[in-house]
Amino acid sequence: MTPSPYVSRINQIDAAQLDAEIYKVLRNQTREIARHGGPGGIDKWQAEVDVVLKFLIWRFSLQRGSSTFGQRLLNLRYVNISRRKAVLYLILSVVPQYLRDRLANENLSERGAIGRALRSLVDWTTSAINLLELVNLLFFLHRGVQPRVIEFLLGLSSQSITTHRPRIIGYSYMTRELLWHGLMELFTIGIPMINFHYLKHALRRLLRRADPSSGLFPVMNAATKCAYCSEDPILPSHAGCEHLFCYYCLQAHFTAMRMFQCPACDAELCVENMRRYTVASAPRSDDEESDDSFEKVDDG
């Protein structure tokens, strides 16, 4: 097949994106390997490790051929690449980023005016590179060639290895993704609107027979547990039966519904009957009342 001079913009952008993703995968794998050698061992040498990774990628791609790994995956290549341009490609893609990363890790404030001037130079250079990338992107969208600044500076242009064929898009994959995201949005919006407290107590009402015990006052002792969470009651509260609840357990139920059944005795509890349990409000037993009357008789 004769090579086609036309290369779509999306293929060129995808090739650049694939090159970046391949570098990120190798970088993450390197960090995972270094993680077993001790925490923070690779951080101070990260800039040098990045240089080595970029050199290896360049060594097995542009130095041995006329395309990067991302271009090979999309059947692209550089038309006018040469050994000199390949070396300049490596220098321009490695040296600026290395200087930026190395100076970012250095404490330039200790070097006085020279350090501040160097920091200012690095910031201005970074801003200039970002502005140049933005301008080059606008030119690429207009002309359809050289999506990367390095390609523009070296005069490199891409060419398709095979004849031009329409780009095949997997609509089944896109349909599955849209369906999945739609379901996630539905669940995210719908689940918080479901009153699980009401459903749980409605199911309990169907499966269990109510044993009303309203009117009884709870009595708290060392063995008393919350009727809902089975833990020691925190700010003990009650609402019309002989069982105690944590304040937040009871309040959470009444926030969801104004009436529900006690999980222990199935008594109907109403929000109007919710009270904080105090020792002073607890009814005293017959023995305590008889002791009080005996003390009153003695005083008389």
TL;DR of this structure?
The chain is built from ten helices and six strands, in the order H-H-H-E-H-H-H-E-H-H-E-H-E-E-E-H.
Structural summary, described in words:
By secondary structure, this protein is mainly alpha-helical. It has a two-stranded antiparallel sheet with strand order 1-2. It has a two-stranded antiparallel ribbon with strand order 3-6. The longest helix has 31 residues. The chain starts with 8 loop residues before the first helix and ends with a helix.
The parts where pLDDT drops under 50 for at least 5 residues are 287-300
Strand content: 5-15%
Structural class: mainly alpha
- Secondary-structure element order, N to C: HHHEHHHEHHEHEEEH
Largest sheet: 2 strands, antiparallel
Helical content (DSSP H or I, runs of 4+): 40-55%
Structural Rg = 37 Å
Oligomeric state of shown chains: single chain
Number of strands: 6
Overall morphology: elongated
Q: For the residues shown, what is the average pLDDT?
A: 79
First-to-last CA distance: 121 Å
Number of helical segments with 4 or more residues: 10
Strand order of the largest sheet: 1-2
Descriptive key words:
single chain, 300 residues, mainly alpha, two-stranded antiparallel sheet, 10 helices, 6 strands, 54% helix, disordered C terminus
Task: Please write out the topology.
Elements: H1 9-35, H2 46-59, H3 69-73, E1 76-78, H4 83-105, H5 113-143, H6 149-154, E2 158-160, H7 171-190, H8 196-207, E3 237-238, H9 247-256, E4 259-261, E5 268-270, E6 275-276, H10 286-299
